[in-house]
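May I ask you to comment on the folded chain given beneath this request?
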Amino acid sequence: MSVASTLSMVAAFALGALIGRTLSVLLGVLLLVLSVYFFIQDRALRRGWYRPALRWVNVAVEVSAPSLLFLADSQLYSVEYALTAPPLVLWGTLVALSGFRGSKALSIGAGAIAATEYALLYLLVAWPKLPPDALVTLQPPLFAVRVLLLFSAGVVTAVFVGHFNRRAAEALTAVRVNDVMGKYLLHERIGAGGMAEVFKATYSPEGGFEKTVALKKILPSLGADAEFLKLFRLEAELCSRLNHPNVVQVLDFGRHSDAFFLAMEFIDGLSLKRVLDVYQGVGMPLSAVTYLGVELCRALDYVHRRVGPDGQPMNLIHRDLNPPNVLLSVLGEVKVADFGIARAASRADVTRVGVVKGKPGYLAPEQAAGEQIDGRVDLFALGVTLHEALTGRRLFPIGDDAASLNAVFTMPIPKPSRLRPEVPAGVDQVVMKLLERELGDRTRSAREALEALLAVSGVGAPYPTGQQELAAAVKRAAAEWPELARRATAAAMAQASTDVASSPVGATDANKPLLPW
C-alpha cells in the first residue's frame, strides 16, 4: 500500500498539466499522507506491534479515499462531475479488496462504510447544488440504487470470503489426513539422515491448543526392522528421562499407521555445524566459544551424573557429540541433541566391546579402537568441537578410509592458539586437556572441565557477553548460510560433472560433506 500510494503520488504530479495543477497537488498530498501512514504501520508491525482493531482502521482509511476525491471534484469542478467521475469506480474495487483479509464482517463493514459515506456526500454536498434538470441517474431514486449496489458489493464479497474460508478449511483437512502424525501436523523437513528425517511440526490436540515441535520420523524402509525399532524405542525411553536446559527435551513417542516418531522440543536456530560453516577459516568469537563450552559442559555433566528411577547412577554416555548434534537458538541457547546412540554404560546388550559407534573425526581413541568406554569419550569429542569453533578448521578428517580413522591415534594436535594467536593460554590448556589421548591425562569429568573453563575465562566472559555474541553469530549464520550452501552446491555439482567426465565408470563421491574443511 505504501509503495502503491507513492507511485500514484508521482503519477499525480507528473500528470499535473493534464488534470490541472490544483487537483494534481490535492491528489499528491492525499497520496503522500497514505504512503506515510502505511509506511509507519509497516515499520511498527515488523517490530511486533499489532492491535486487532487495526484491520478496521485500515479498511476505513482505504474505502474513504474516494470520499476525499469526491469533495475535491465537487469543489474544483461541479457536483455533477463528482457524481459521475471515473474515480468512483474505485469504491467498489476497494470494497472487494477488503475480502483479502479473510473476514466476512470486515467485507460487510467496508460496504457499509462506503455506502454511508456516499449517501452522506450526496445528501449534504451534492443534492443542495444539483440543478432541477439534472440527469435522471443523479436523482434520489436512482442514486439510492447506486448506494444499495455499493453496499451489496460488501455483501457479495462476504459471501465469497465465507466460501473461500470453507474451501480452505476443507483443503487443510485433506492435508491433515495425509500429512499428520496423530496430533502432529507436519510442516517443512528440517533434517534427514540415513535412519530418520526430522520435520517442523505443530502439536495440535483437541481444544485448539498448539505448540511447535520437532518431529523425528523413522524412514519407511526401517519400519519393519525389529532391532532398529527396539533401539528407537530405547532412545525415546532414555531421552524422556532427561530434563535439562542444555538438553533437547523429548516430549512424546508414538506410532501413526506404520510410522514411528519421536516428538522433541523445537529449537528456533541452527546447528553448530551450520554456524561453523559460516565462520570457516576464522573461528567464532572467543567469548561465544567459551560460553558454548560452558553450556556443553553443563549438559554433559547432567547426562553423565543422571540417576534412574531407582536412584542409582545411569552412567549415560552420549557417544556422538559433534557440531551437527549441537543446536543453537537465535537467543544464544545451547542444546545437545540426538541421543540416538547414547546408552547407559551398564547395559551389556547395547554397549559391547569391539562395537564402534559415533561420527568419525570426533571419536576418542578408545572409542575408535572399540575398547571399553566411559563419559570421557564425550569430553574428547567436546575438545574436538571447541578446537574447531576456535580455529574455524576441522581437527581430524571425517572419512571412513584407514588414513582418516588412524588420524585420531597419530596426527599431531596443534594448540588452538597456533592457528589463532588471540586464543588465551588458559583456553588453550582446557581444550588440549580435553584432547589428551591417554585416559589418565585427559580431563576426568564434565564438572572439572566446566570449572576449568570458568576459571580461565572468568564468569564475566561467558555471561552475559558470551551468550550475546553467540546469538549474534547464529543470526549472522542464518542470514549467510543459504547463499553459502548454494555456492557450495553449485561447486559440488561442477566438480561432480568433471569427475564423471574423467572417470571410466562415472563414479562420484556422493557422501562428501557440503562444506569440506
